[in-house]
Amino acid sequence: MELLLSALRAVDPAAVEQEYQVVRSQSLQLKKDHGLTTEVGSLKDNAKKNRYKDILPYDQTRVVLSLQTSGSDSDYINASFVQGASGDCRYIASQAPLSSTLTDFWRMIWQHKIKVIVMACREIEMGKRKCECYWAAPLQSAAFGPFTVTTQVESRPNQDVVVRTLVVCYQQDVHSLVQFQYLSWPDHDVPYETTGILDLLDRARSSQGAESSPILVHCSAGCGRTGVICALDYIHDLVVTKKITEDFSVLDLVLELRRQRPSAVQTKDQYGFIFTAAASMLERFLQTPDDQLYSNLPEVKKREKKTSAAASSSVNSSSAMNDTYAVVNKAKQPHRTTSEPAYSSVVIPRSNPGSRTLPPSHHYDNDCSAASAAPIYSTVKPKVKPLTSPPSASPIYDIAAPTNQREDPHLVPEADHDYEDVSSPASDVSSFFTPGGIGFNCRIQKPKGPRDPPAAWGRMER
């Protein structure tokens, strides 16, 4: 692990940028080699369910909705199954729901018994709607088709994260889950530090426990920030199961994610952030005793339950509580008076992480109490880019046009050049490299078994 940590620390930013161009180039070859298609997402009836018309789930890995709540329900949702380090279906990578797909979103949650949601975006960013609110206000309920969702608890363990305990009722059955919303990750950018996102993933894994249901991860399109989260959690699982080796390859990992979810890890900055965050993660592991490092593994928890009969009642009661409540270690803060806003300000990511001062105009998107003092929509500024970085030979952000959605008159129309144009190949720059780089003579140690997703993933005939 020490050798891998040294390699991650020593990686050259210029090499990372070139390596990302190889990821883009090889992604097109992946589609050909594996016969990946997007026919279902392209159908006329389904096109309106896509937030962006060129970010469509592959037919071979898409989530197929089987739960029927009305005669007009279809089986389509813009979401993909993604394998974890052990080869099972560890994640569902999804776009954020539209107003027209809120019921479908909850159909997916109910069908797959989702216990943990990781939301890597805010509802509104830079004046553009990135996600419809699919939960209720604290201590209130909201209906989404036949599903009634109640927010039992909403807390702010720190300035970057909102934790919500949600209870959903459908046909007199009840299911509880926990949502972790990360507020300080601008679209197509990266957090200015790794601590926040690594802490968030620790909290999410703690809530997931030994549950076998997938973790639902989404941002706006379900590819950029979502892909980074899946990659970091994948690396974590490789470490705790002792499957990671010194020749581990970030490039191979991202290509494997892109085989299952198009455009996963979307920009060169997001790609480079994986190296930085993985190095921070390994540093944490090296500073953690083995008995604590592996205490969260499902197989370890099962052994503890079998060998500790005397403590079984307390373990069971704790598990029952975990079904409903997220247990977090909150930093001590002064008691908030009733005159203070319900949500604290959010840090704008910046190139200099030394200061975490909070601008007075930066409020939580839906904080009505601060509306008179500041605009209701937050202003998330992208991180300042170093002036010394050479321009890329090919564009990092390509065009993706959003599908026709109901327009909010208060929002700026989507017209930015955000997403990769997966139909036009990037130049193949693999000839720029010589053996020895961390991404090129390295291979991931993959779990044994068939490479293709299991039949339960809703595979279509090729």
Characterise this structure.
Pfam families: Y_phosphatase. One of its GO terms (molecular function) is non-membrane spanning protein tyrosine phosphatase activity. Residues 331-367, 440-462 are annotated as: Disordered. By secondary structure, the protein is of the alpha/beta class. It has a single domain (2-305, 424-453), classed as Protein tyrosine phosphatase superfamily (Protein-Tyrosine Phosphatase, Chain A), CATH 3.90.190. Helices cover 29% and strands 14% of the residues. It contains twelve helices and eleven strands. It has helices at 2-9, 13-33, 39-42, 44-47, 102-111, 195-208, 224-240, 250-260, 268-286, 290-293, 298-307, 312-322; strands spanning 62-64, 76-83, 89-94, 116-119, 124-125, 128-129, 141-144, 147-158, 161-170, 173-182, 215-218. The strands form two sheets. A nine-stranded mixed sheet has the order 1-2-3-11-4-10-9-8-7, sandwiched between helices. A two-stranded antiparallel ribbon has the order 5-6. Helix 2 runs parallel beside helix 8. It is globular, with a radius of gyration of 22 Å. The two termini are 41 Å apart. The relative contact order is 0.18.
